[in-house]
Amino acid sequence: MFGRASYFFGTYSAAFYVHIVTGPITLLTGLALMSTKLLKRSSKWHRRLGKLQVVCVLTTAASGLWMARYAATGVVAGGGFATLAIATATTVICGFQMAMQRRLVEHRIWMTRCFLLLCSAVVLRLTAGMAIVTQFDADWVYPMSAWTSWLVPLCIYELIRRVRVTSRWESRGLAVRQIDRVRAS
Length: 185
What we know:
The protein is an all-alpha fold. It has helices at residues 10-33, 36-41, 43-68, 75-100, 104-118, 120-133, 141-184.
């Protein structure tokens, strides 16, 4: 299948079909779970969908990890996909643990990370499509995309999150300093 005939059988083909079935489910379920409207309307449905999401994400990550060994463009792309699979599994496990501990702020952070990692499939396809449309088909584009499709969105999220946290702390510090000045006068 698409240049994979030499290894598209047995465990690889099983992992491939599992991946293409569970992958879209994780994206659609993740999209629903990111909705605050669903959470506000029915926390019971949010929990049910969340449990389905954990199972599907772990299944998708396991199949992705298995397929990473066979990345068509080599070890660099395979390393990117393997690391993505491990990172995605890690984020969903951490997010689930935070939910079970009722640490909901941390749960949301971990699950946002997980959703961003899941969206890397879309970013990867967009990058590949752009390369085809612009007829820019350098050998390094796909291996680089295997890494940048998830690292760039994740780094942007972390940077924005850090800036917001820093701004919040700075504004709180300013408020405390102003209160101290009022008390001192």
